[in-house]
Amino acid sequence: MSNSAELQSSIKNARQHLLAERNEYGWWEGELSTSALSTATATIAFHTVNPDKYSKPITLGLQWLIDNQNEDGGWGDTTISFSNISTTLLCWSALNLSTRLSTTDTSSKAEAWIKNYVGSLDADAIAEAVTRRYGKDHTFSVPILMVCAVCGRLGGDSNKAWKKVLPLPFELAAFPRKWFAILQLPVVSYALPALIAIGYARFIHVRPFFPVRLLRTLAWKKTSRVLQEIHPESGGYLEATPLTSFVTIALASSDQKQHPVVQKAIPFLLASMRPDGSWPIDTNLATWATTLSVKALASGNSPHPILPALESDAIRLWLKQQQYLETHAYTNAPPGGWAWTDLTGGVPDADDTAGALLALRVLDPGNNNSAENDSSASAAITWLLDLQNRDGGIPTFCRGWGALPFDRSSPDLTAHALRAWITWMKDVPPALRSRVRLGMEHGLDYLKQTQASDGSWTPLWFGNQHLPDENNPTYGTAKVLLALAQLDNCHHSDTVSMREKAIHWLQENQNPDGGWGGGSQTPSSIEESALAIDALCTNLVHLEHREKIIQSIQSGVDCLITLTKQGAHFPASPIGFYFAKLWYHEKIYPIVWSVSALQQASRILSP
Which of 7, 75, 82, 4 minimizes the C-alpha distance to 41? Predict the structure, then answer.
């Protein structure tokens, strides 16, 4: 059992580690994992546009794929992820373009993996396997099959290969954006560029009958303009290599190599390439990393100052500058929200807006900026309220896009919004305060409805590869508990019951080593152990059976101190999801959550 000295030493080391991660300007950018999926799609994009001109990044990318193939012959989304059919098909497709490297052995091992998963290399079988994996959501299944067709992995007949790619109604993008929820598009809200570009490519390669052919021919001029209008200055849609690459591949394979989008996307892909020939899933999560770091440093009523006053002021000013003050061209989101990054490809979303609100309050400990005179806070609070769905939950980007999984309301996002609202509620104008109270009640109703019978909640944007369904109830449950700890003032009748069931679930799913994984019988990770400890500590004051909970906290802290080597070692785990179950890990996650958990535990365990 760790003693108080070990705990304090671990806190000191972890805080120093986190502070050392700041960039030259004083805030945090983090570091996203390298991605085999991103590397494959970027390599194919360069080849599709001009294989001779971009031979260097193509060769470096292919060599990285060869060097980082899993032992079983497949590829996962990160170098520590299990092999999956999506990434393996994309990497296998990229290898088919090589003219300068010997890829025979690598391709043969990949084919063996695919045969084992699919049953054969038959084009129909591959198409069926990909479609089955994603169901009604075509956000990722269609791009994968498009890449397979472009790279000759669905047979030598191009027309037959493209027929395996489901058509996307790109012409619908010509309608006003506010109609999109009604139109029930077959892709998620943030995949609009893929809908347009891949839908057009499929139309070019497989011509439909009249009058659909005429309709889509006439629609291209307008939808092409939409594609340009939502293309950010950086050249990267969502700052994401895969989405930007898919759009580039689709346009370049449709005699649109000179399209303005392609001409901006290629420099983005070149700039995003890492020295070893790989690409990350996204450029950075600077805003998200910074708000997480600020909140972690202030957790547990830490006696340490967060940062010197001048540095806190600089971060607060920078964070306010990241707030969107105009309607966003991509999602048509109104002003008031924050995105995950400080780069132009970001899109305002619920998690980052809630995180920014909480960080701004932390960075102003004297509460000098109330929401009554802080227009940025009032706008953000209103932005979240306007985003709330009819079911009471909070979605990621757009209200009302409920047809596909990644546009639905989510317990973790809802809980984060609730924390932001309660933190600012006493300082907002009276009219807005009434809206906040009502929004909180609806949010708690949603959390009650979505709590599983075992007491857990399933999050949207985080998962665990060790569970059969790849969900992460530890993350979801911990995030909701962090909110419930702050929400007793709203007197919701079911708060106590929800909390007790959730606490019981965390205790039941604690591993013998004291840590937590994503759920039952999954390996303990730094990230999930820290989140569970944090949730238990913040709710301890509300619980009757304190001693048993304290024992769980102590065991968890012992495990966390061991995993982090007393706050000095933070290997990341692939618990982060991108869209369509693409995995990533982020360097900052294990650090920030450890700092927060250890400081919270010190408040309880130290004499």
Answer: 75
CB 529 within 8 A of CB 563: yes
In this prediction, residue 408 carries a pLDDT of 87
Say how far apart CA 74 and CA 493 lie, in whole Å: 50
Q: Please report the sign of the dihedral spanned by the C-alpha atoms of residue 153, residue 101, residue 67, residue 248.
A: negative
pLDDT tens-place string over residues 101-116: 888 999 999 999 999 9
Where do we find the tokens 């006493």?
Answer: 426
Task: Output phi, psi for 100, to 5 deg.
Answer: -115, -15
The amino acid occupying position 549 is I
Residues lower than pLDDT 50 in the chain: 372
- Rounded distance, CA 224 to CA 99, Å? 33
Q: Helices (H), strands (E): how many in the chain?
A: 24, 4
Q: Packing angle between helix 411-424 and helix 430-450, nearest 10 degrees?
A: 150
Closest CA to 560 of 502, 508, 505, 602: 602
- pLDDT of 140: 86
Of how many residues is the chain composed? Answer: 607
Alpha-helical (H) ranges within 485-572 are 495-508, 526-539, 546-563
Amino acid at 16: Q
Q: Which helix (H) or strand (E) holds 34?
A: strand 34-35
Q: Which residues of 252-270 are buried (b: 16+ CB within 10 A; e: fewer)?
A: bbbebeebebbebbbebbe
Q: What is the largest CA-CA distance in the chain?
A: 79
- Radius of gyration, CA atoms only, the chain: 24
Give the alpha-carbon dihedral of 484, 489, 492, 496, to 10 degrees: 50
Residue 602: in which H helix or E strand, if any?
helix 588-605
Q: What is the SS3 string spanning 562-582? A: HHCCCCCCCCCCCCEEEHHHE
423, 357 Cβ separation under 8 angstroms: yes
Two tokens, residue 438: 């009502």
Torsion angles phi and psi, residue 2, rounded to 5: -70, 150
The tokens for 525 are 């990770």
In order of their start, the domains of the chain are 12-31+284-605 (1.50.10.20), 35-280 (1.50.10.20)
Distance CA(396)–CA(447), nearest Å, equals: 16
Helix (H, G, I), strand (E, B), or coil: what is residue 238? helix
Phi, psi torsion values for 55, nearest 5 degrees: -65, -35
DSSP for 381-412, written as a single string: HHHHHHH--TTS-B-SS-TT--SSGGGS-BHH
Residue 189's pLDDT is: 63
Q: What is the pLDDT of residue 372?
A: 46
